[in-house]
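Good morning,

Attaching, inline, the backbone tokens for the sequence recovery test we're adding to the shared suite. The designed sequence is right after.
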């Protein structure tokens, strides 16, 4: 595998900033397709400035489904390292449309050939905890998992906070967690930010678990590797059709994946910018008609470095040089 020649983290932050700035104008307007389209367009144009030979591994779908950021599309200037690219211009399009917290724009990169390709897998069971709790097991009884995490973070079980997506498929986890006495933070959407919060030592969330999207799982792994968290996952098809496709392709549905098998490199870079705001990343704000403020983080696994970036943008000047409508 070819290793990146330079840290392109700040270049990637500009990409997620562009998606956030373009899409936040649609906040609370009930038009998630329009908001997503604005983010996709801005992200794609911004990739033109990144010095890399990138290939979209996880994106907006197949070429016939998406005009931009489709799987297999080449992005970057064509100079520099050959990289796998995973994108989600808006993780939480419904959150954006409804004006709810925690919509974010994200990008993860890794050396070419190192990213796990979900293929026809749409759903993945996940467990993300702090690195100190790396002895957890995906199929362990809930009381064992919570006890191990509690010991690792020096808390009582009843003080733990577990991040879950509010879905019927996760109800059995809700019941088990409540039986053990831990607290639950329920979210309508936002798979990736849940993993970020569970892996981050500064977050109030101690554990993220449940079944969410497979592509989001790979993107999250890029961040978890740099934040120092621990991640376990397994493909979890939610329909017989999805299950049959995977079995026909020879996929082992019993295999337990880790951050290291989802991304087989320690040279990952992850960037995220808040769109609608939230407890973990603030959203885009406008102190006046000419200025926007964004809040982002960039995580580099190779150095275990996390940077939080507040950027003040002169919108008129930004539109002049970027040809993107903000």
């Amino acid at each position: 595998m070819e290793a990146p020649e330079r840290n392109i983290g700040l270049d990637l932050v500009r990409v997620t900033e562009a998606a956030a700035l373009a899409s936040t104008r649609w906040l609370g307007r009930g038009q998630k397709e329009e908001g997503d389209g604005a983010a996709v367009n801005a992200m794609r144009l911004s990739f033109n400035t990144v010095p890399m030979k990138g290939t979209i591994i996880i994106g907006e779908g197949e070429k016939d489904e998406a005009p931009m950021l489709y799987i297999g599309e080449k992005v970057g200037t064509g100079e520099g390292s050959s990289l796998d690219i995973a994108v989600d211009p808006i993780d939480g399009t419904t959150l954006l449309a409804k004006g709810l917290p925690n919509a974010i724009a994200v990008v993860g990169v890794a050396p070419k050939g190192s990213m796990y390709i979900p293929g026809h897998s749409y759903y993945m069971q996940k467990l993300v905890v702090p690195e100190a709790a790396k002895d957890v097991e995906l199929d362990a009884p809930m009381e064992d998992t919570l006890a191990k995490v509690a010991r690792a973070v020096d808390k009582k079980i009843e003080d733990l906070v577990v991040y879950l997506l509010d879905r019927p498929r996760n109800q059995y986890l809700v019941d088990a967690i409540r039986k053990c006495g831990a607290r639950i933070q329920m979210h309508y959407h936002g798979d990736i930010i849940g993993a970020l919060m569970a892996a981050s030592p500064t977050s109030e969330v101690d554990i993220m678990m449940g079944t969410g999207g497979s592509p989001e799982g790979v993107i999250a792994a890029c961040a978890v590797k740099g934040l120092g968290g621990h991640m376990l996952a397994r493909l979890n098809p939610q329909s017989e059709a999805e299950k049959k496709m995977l079995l026909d392709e020879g996929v082992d549905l019993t295999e337990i994946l880790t951050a290291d098998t989802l991304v087989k490199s320690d040279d990952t870079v992850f960037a995220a910018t808040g769109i609608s705001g939230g407890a973990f990343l603030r959203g885009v704000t406008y102190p006046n008609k000419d200025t926007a403020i964004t809040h982002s983080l960039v995580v580099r696994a190779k150095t275990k470095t996390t940077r939080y970036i507040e950027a003040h943008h002169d919108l008129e000047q930004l539109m002049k040089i970027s040809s993107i409508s903000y």
